[in-house]
Amino acid sequence: MRRTTELFLLARIQHNFAWSVSQDLYDSGILVGVPSKTIGLLFIWMIAVAQVFAAPAQSTQTPTTPAPPAQQSTVPVTPQTPTNPAQPGAEQPPPPQKSLVLVVLDPAHGGADTGARGLSGLAESELVLSYARLARISLEAQGMHVILTRQANEDPSFDDRSRIANAQRGGVFITLHVSSTGQPGTVRVYSQSQMALPQNSASAPRGSLLPWDRAQFKFIDQSRRLAELIQIQMAQRFHGSSEIPFEAPVRQLRTVGAPAVAIEISSVSVPNRAMLDQMGPGLADGIARAVVAFRTIYEAGGK
Amino acid sequence: MSKGLKTAIAALVALVVLGLLAVPGLRQAVERLRSTPKTDEQARREVMQEPISTPTDVNVRAQMYWLSSSSPSALEPTAIQLPLSANPVERSKQLLNALIARAPDPKVRTLPAEASLLAFYIQPDGTAIADFSDEIASTMPSGILSEQLAVQSIAQTLGANVSGIRQLKILVHGQEAETLAGHLDLYGFFPVTSAAAVTPAAAPAVQKQTSTPTPAPKKKSP
C-alpha cells in the first residue's frame, strides 16, 4: 500500500515536471506553432518510455548488501557473496559457483606450535606443510582451486583457519596432521563426531545462520562420505591403514561450515624422515582422487 | 691351626661364595631400576600424595582401560585389585589416580605419568567434571589418536566402575581448555556408558576384547 502511494506521488511529480518544462519551452518561443498541450503530452510519454526501459535493468542488479563480517557466533549457511578474509596465507577466492571447485587445505600447527615432535627432531608442522603442497599440485591437476590456510611457518588460530573455509562456497576442508603414535606408515581419516555441547545464547539458531561453535554439525553426513572416500584411497596405498574412517571430536573441524575431514599420518616416531616423505605423493594422489569422486555426491547435494 | 680358626675361615668362605652367588641378582635389580626411571612427578606423588581412602573402601577387581599391548591403537580392559570407596566421587578419584599411576607397563599408558587429578565432581544430572593438572596437556603425546584414546580410557574406566555418570567434562588446571594437546576438542561433553558398579562377587575376569577409537558407522551408498 505504501509502495503504491509512493509510485503514485512520483508519477504526479513527473507529470507536473514534464508539463512545466513543456510550458517553459513553449513560452520561450522555440516551439512556435506547436500546441502547448501536445508538447506536454510528448514529454510525459518520453519519461514513461524511459522508465519502462530502466526497470528491467534495475531488477537484474543484486542489491549491494555488504557481506557480513566473519563473526565468532554464526556462519552463513549459503554466503551471498564471497569475501576475502585477508587472512595470513589466504589467497584470492574463486568466483562463486554451485559445483565443488575448491579445496581448503589446512597444514595444522605452525609457528611456535610444532605439533607432534619425533625423537629425531621431526616436527609435525613442517611435515604437514610439505604434504599440503604436494596435495595442492595433485588437486590443481584435477581442476580444483586450492587454498592453503598457511603458506609458511605461521600459526593461524583454529577460528582463523575455519574463517578461510567459511568465507568461501563450493568447497571442502581438509586438515592434515602427523601423529606421535600409531602404526608407522598408516593413515587415519576422521570426520567430526556428534557431541553434546554447552548451550548458550550465541549458539541458538538464527534464521539461516549456523552457530559458529557447531557449524560442522550440519555437514556431518557429507563429511563422513568424504572421509570414507579418502580412507579407501589410503587403505589402497598404505598397508595397514583401515578401510573404514573414524569419528572424533576434532577441534578444527567443529567450526567449519562445509564438508570437512582430518587426515592423520602415523607418525613422527619413525627413525628417519624418508619414510614419511615417501608417503607424500601417494597421500596427495589419494586425496585428489577422493575429492573428485566426492564431487558427484556434493553436487547432487546428497549425503 | 686351631679348630676355631678353621671354623671361622670356613664360615668366611661360605659367606664369600654366597655373596658371589647373589651378585647376578643384584645386578639385574639395578638394571631393572635403571630401565624404569621415576620422573620427578612420580617421585613427588609417592612422597606427597596420600592414597585416597574412605571408611567404605572395599577391595575389588576394577576394570581399567589402558592401551592394548598387542594393538597400541586400541584400548583393552585390564582387571586390577583396588580399594574403592562406595562414594561415587571418591571412587572416581581413586580410579583416575590408578589410571595414571598404576599402568602395568609404560607402553600401555594412556595418560602421562606427570599428570595428576586436581579435582573431581559429579553433578546431579550425571555430568562428571574431571580437573587435571597442566601436565595432562603439556606432556600428552600429541595427535588425534593418542588424545582420543586418553579421553576414552578415562570415560570407559569411569563407566565400567562407577554407576550414575552420564557424561564427562574435562578441565585443565581448573579451566576450560580448547583442546587436550592440540587436537581433541574439550569444548563439549564426552559420553560415558555407565555399567553396574563392580562388586567383589561380580568381579569380571580380564577380558581381552579391545575397543578402538570410534570407527564411523558404515553408511549406505546413495
Share of helix of chain B, binned: 25-40%
Anisotropy-based shape of chain B: elongated
The Rg value of chain A, from CA coordinates, equals: 29 Å
CATH fold name of the largest domain in chain A, please? Aminopeptidase
Q: Return the string of H and E elements of chain B.
A: HHEEHEEHHEE
Low-pLDDT stretches of chain B are 197-209
State the strand order across the main sheet of chain B: 3-4-5-6
The fraction of residues assigned to DSSP E strands of chain B is 15-25%
How many strands appear in the DSSP assignment of chain B? 6
- Counted beta strands of chain A: 8
List the helices and strands of chain A in order: HHEEHEHEEEHEHEH
Query: Class by helix and strand content of chain B?
Result: alpha+beta
Please list the strands of the largest sheet of chain A in the order they lie side by side.
Answer: 3-2-4-8-5-7
The largest sheet of chain B, given as strand count, sense and whether it forms a barrel, is:
4 strands, mixed
**Distance between termini of chain B?**
103 Å
Percent strand of chain A: 5-15%
According to CATH, the homologous superfamily of the largest domain in chain A is Zn-dependent exopeptidases
Instruction: Please indicate the count of domains of chain B.
Output: 2
User: Helix count of chain A?
Assistant: 7
